[in-house]
Amino acid sequence: MKTKFYPIVLEKEFLFLKLVKERAGEVNFLFMSLWDPVCINLAQEFMIDSVADDEDVSKKKPLYIIDSFNMPTVFPAMMVDKVPALVTIPKNKDASFFRKEEYVSNIYRRLGL
Question: Quick one: what percent of the chain has pLDDT higher than 90?
């Protein structure tokens, strides 16, 4: 199955804050931990699918990947207490209005895996 996202790994918290403040449209974040086997499997499938897909990247949306080790303070800011979690901030909404998906099967479905 073809994913509709391409991955971008965020490593600094100021980049996250900048994305939330200056977003022009819908923004998607995948919160994960490198020590969780479910997150590792999800990341491997997503990376393999996004690399194997020969569709043009300009037709896909960015998926910002946030790791619990590099950016731990972002997790409570977005009320993420379980990984993996897919957080979507909708277009034309305040950052306090967001969708959070923590069920693994629904995350796979929303990512197109």
Answer: 13
Angle at 21 between CA 18 and CA 27, to 5 degrees: 85
pTM for this entry? 0.85
- Domain ranges within the chain, ordered by starting residue: 5-111
Q: Which two tokens stand for residue 62?
A: 């960015």
Backbone angles phi, psi at 89, to 5 degrees: -100, 115
Structure tokens at 55: 């569709």
pLDDT digits (tens, 9 = 90+) for 20-45: 888 778 889 999 998 889 888 888 88
SS3 15: helix
CATH 3.40.30.10 is the classification of domain 5-111: yes
Classify strands 99-101 and 85-89 as parallel, antiparallel or unpaired: antiparallel
Q: For residue 23, which of 73, 93, 72 has the smallest C-alpha distance?
A: 93
